[in-house]
Amino acid sequence: MSSVGLLYVGAVLFMNGLMLIGLVPGKSAAILNFFVGAMQVVFPTIILIQSNNDLAIIFGAAGLYLFGFTYLYVGIIQMTGISGEGLGWFSIFVAACAVVIGILQFTLVGDPVFGVIWLTWAVLWFLFFLLLGLGRDSLTFTTGWFTIFVAHITGTIPAFFLLTGRYETNDGYAVLVAIAAAAALGAAFFLGRRGIPRGKASQENQAVAPA
């Protein structure tokens, strides 16, 4: 994933996390979902057209569609008010693909940091599946807080390392990212149990939607 694309993944994850915990109205969050979703569909399409059947380039672009379609789906749900079950079941497909891509980052690409990042995304999208596909509403705040934390752990921070040419990958850094992700999940469950008062933004959300 490019550094620019990753930065905006962080932005939309952050926005959707705020939406899930009731601080941003769904229709307001939908706009950024449409912008980033379109970017994550148009850019990989251009990359694939110019790839000359290079498998490495195709592999790098293929995963972007998983994000792009998710964000566009979220935007449509929030603007139309349709139910989120379809997105929930799509999320389990995304989670499974993220596990495979994460393993390939370790074994094929040799990038353990992004291996951990992809596995973290797999956990996040699995929570979306539980929340939307299976209707586990009790996970709403937990998923929202984890989305906010993951936005920065897997999006904003690594994006700035890439943009400044300071990105490095090795087993030690991968362990640090894994510890941060595990701590974020624990904190999300803690904060999710406490919840926050539901305000106007929460009431306006027609359907709980993921990153």
From TrEMBL:
InterPro entries to which the protein is assigned, alphabetical: AmiSUreI_transpt, AmiSUreI_transpt_sf
Keywords: Cell membrane, Membrane, Transmembrane, Transmembrane helix, Transport
Keyword Transport listed: yes
Subcellular location: Cell membrane
Protein name stated in the entry: AmiS/UreI family transporter
Organism ancestry: Bacteria, Bacillati, Actinomycetota, Actinomycetes, Micrococcales
Record's keyword annotation contains Transmembrane helix: yes
Family: Belongs to the AmiS/UreI family.
Species this protein is from: Arthrobacter flavus
Annotated membrane topology: Multi-pass membrane protein
Annotated transmembrane regions: 6-24, 31-49, 55-74, 86-107, 113-134, 146-167, 173-192
One Pfam family matching this protein: AmiS_UreI
Domain of life: Bacteria
Principal localisation: membrane
